[in-house]
């Protein structure tokens, strides 16, 4: 039996919907269903009545629910206790985040006056969106930092997680610039004109899906022709600077290139999207260090000047 099976069961017990629960657990619905079936096989009884909508717990599932909740709580409490008695090693707080945030946001955020006053030791695992979420779901890190937009794909909604906004960023459309500072490519030309497009290579990438959302809101279809793909926003940025096409990129990633005139924002506000930067963790007690940081962040978030996160100089331009 695996701990994630128990967490899956708690999710379906809370939502009573396989699709919603699978989304909250950040896995596909078929994979989620297989894990619930694996748990039922291990128990030796059906826990979910799939013949109703919404689904219901069977008698065995109703009996299993409170014990499952205790098992999950005890597993994480035991892990926390072990980390606390391990001494100094427990003081290393582990983070995971998108590569862009790990490179451009995290160093400034962790070094900001309100955070740097805390005696923290940290480590960072930079990954794509799904890997970052999986690291948090599987207990491989204390915190995950990612972008969130209310109209974008759901991020850890309905599961045993809590989050706080710690910053903000903007997804903007950019082009390389010529010697006079004008954009090499424009989206206001004739519809028949193909625009070379620098795209995100993973089909389930969070920023890529937000870029698709922006395109759907434009007044007419964009004649974009993919000429390059990359899983890294920094890779797309360098190709845009080299004049190879247009790309949607987080402003935090391109702020310096914009100031230097190597990139130009095109399309205006209609081609941009504001994004929250949020930090996630598992709900409930954690280590003394992680709980201390979380309480500190909650206190800071209650201050009016930090209602949109910490000012680390990313909201320029």
UniProtKB/TrEMBL annotation:
PROSITE patterns: HTH_LYSR. It comes from the Bacteria. Residues 1-58 form the HTH lysR-type domain. Transmembrane segments: none annotated. It holds the Pfam family HTH_1. Keywords: DNA-binding, Plasmid, Transcription, Transcription regulation. The keyword Transcription regulation applies. CDD domains: PBP2_LTTR_substrate (cd05466). The keyword Ribosomal protein does not apply. Belongs to the LysR transcriptional regulatory family. PANTHER family: HTH-TYPE TRANSCRIPTIONAL REGULATOR, HTH-TYPE TRANSCRIPTIONAL REGULATOR YJIE. This is LysR family transcriptional regulator.
